[in-house]
Design brief:
This protein is mainly alpha-helical and 184 residues long. It is built from 4 helices and 5 strands. Its main location: membrane.
Length: 184
């Protein structure tokens, strides 16, 4: 019988990793009766590890043979030797969140998603799709913003010109802009 060095859960003699927390299994202390039986009581449903194919006991969150996560634990922890940056969901999220780079770098809302998309589009198809969507949205918003600013400036100039008519027109009609008679 082996015991987990992290949580103390007992496991099978051939288990290298704890089925509860994924920690490394160590030999149980000598002379301690664990109360565990070595017999396997079959169930109607047997599940296997997707990484190594070992039979999993019900309720295990980690494979006892290879340490891979099972069920929710499999989604929560990346496989050994794999960076979280290799995860498609993480990179897709970063692709969309990199839009906030525009608060630091001019046109960062386009450059951020573009860099992530160019780096990961061939390895992760999901990032290819999300990268294109993020780029399309950010380029569209930038174009709409430039057009909106141009229209706003044009309307402001028209409004300022319209308001200046009420200052310039009365003065010119009254002769206020001509030289006084004593200077002629």
């Amino acid at each position: 019988m082996r015991q987990c060095g992290v949580c103390g859960t007992e496991g099978a003699e051939d288990a290298r990793f704890c089925p509860t927390c994924g920690g490394e299994m160590r030999p149980a202390p000598e002379g301690v009766d664990t109360g565990a039986e070595d017999t396997f009581e079959g169930t109607d449903r047997v599940s296997y590890c997707t990484e190594c194919g070992a039979v999993l006991d019900s309720g295990n969150r980690f494979c006892g043979a290879c340490g891979a996560g099972v069920g929710a634990a499999a989604r929560a922890t990346p496989p050994r030797g794999q960076s979280f940056l290799d995860d498609a969901v993480t990179m897709s999220t970063l692709c969309h969140l990199s839009t906030l780079a525009s608060f630091i770098v001019p046109l960062g809302n386009i450059l951020g998603p573009l860099v992530i998309w160019l780096l990961r589009k061939d390895q992760l198809p999901q990032v290819d799709m999300h990268g294109k969507a993020a780029l399309n949205f950010n380029i569209s918003i930038t174009i709409y913003g430039v057009i909106g600013i141009a229209i706003s400036l044009a309307l402001m100039l028209v409004l300022i010109g319209f308001l200046l008519i009420f200052v310039v027109l009365p003065r010119s009609l009254c002769g206020g802009w001509s030289r006084p008679s004593w200077q002629r």
